[in-house]
Amino acid sequence: xxxxxxxxxxxxxxxxxxxxxxxxxxxxxxxxVLLRHALNLIGIDHTGPGxxxxxxxxxxxxxxxxxxxxxxxxxxxxxxxxxxxxQANSLLSEMQEKLVSAVATVEGLLITRTRDTLNAGDxxxxxxxxxxxxxxxxxxxxxxDPDVVADVSDSGKSExxxxxxxxxxxxxxxxxxxxxxxxxxxxxxxxxEHELVxxxxxxxxxxxxxxxxxIIGDTWGKKWRRxxxxxxxxxxxxxxxxxxxxxRWRNPYxxxxxxxxxxxxxxxxxxxxxxxxxxxxIRDSPLFSFHxxxxxxIEGVFALFxxxxxxxxxxxxxxxxxxxxxxDVRFDADFRxxxxxxxxxxNLQELIDAHAYRADMIANMDF
Length: 367
Fold this sequence. Notes:
Blueprint: E1 4-6, E2 19-24, H1 32-41, E3 53-61, E4 64-71, E5 74-80, H2 85-111, H3 114-119, E6 124-125, H4 129-143, E7 153-158, E8 161-166, H5 169-198, H6 212-217, H7 220-227, H8 233-250, E9 267-270, E10 273-276, H9 295-315, H10 317-325, E11 329-330, H11 333-345, H12 348-364
Antiparallel strand pairs: 1-3, 2-5, 3-4, 4-5, 6-11, 7-8, 9-10
Helix pairs in contact: 1-2, 4-5, 5-7, 5-8, 5-9, 8-9, 10-12, 11-12
């Protein structure tokens, strides 16, 4: 970075000289502010924001007036001087390569403080609830849609000739519903775990006690106990019922198809033949009866999920309102204080609207 120098104070570039520009590809600089910080570390300041511009830094490179600008439509490098196109492109490529290479050093300096900063609550968590819920809704609709039916026949060739097997459509439907049910359960749990983390700043998150990285890595059951709690019998009942659903339908298929206790997935050799380890317990296994899920099974699972949604709506309405807005969630002390203030006024929607306006302004660089 020795060829980068701070622009001479009080000296404006000669605007009569030709100007050349290059766009830094997003894949090379997905976090533009790291390039800006690399310049800041060697004494090159930045300015901004401005109209459709987040920030810009002016400097000299090998004696030529240059700038790095983060605009709405990209990160731009510019150089001005008596240069041919080939010379300008060569210098722009040099600058880009050196700035991108410097990012690794910047990241190394920042990463040493990352964990402490995260656990102090000075973080923003990206709100992915809408995407996760969209996946859940998609698989739920498929699991309950009678028109989602695969081809009811199968065929092939053997040494004895061509064969065709016709399977009852209702069995195919049941198997399809089972696959979609498992996918819907996984999607619901992903959404639930995500939402429980996002809800923390609206409840009693305390960075001096809570280890945010640990909470994020906890199982859904531990997240539930931390956020929803165990004092309400209804909360305990819902968690227990959800655990039963997860144990029966989801867990076997998130662990290579092996059920807890291997009741229907391992057969032990006995004097009377190969028998499932769980013996008669296989009646409770989804592996039993062609992996099918009955309408009662499916209705029961989704009825439980609706109960959980209704319960969370009633116990943490402000958190759910914010999460539903799609806004990211800050965990810092200032944001938590804002939440308390607006909740006390009974008008959290006003805070949501203010942050949504600010987010739109930043996204469009309308400063």
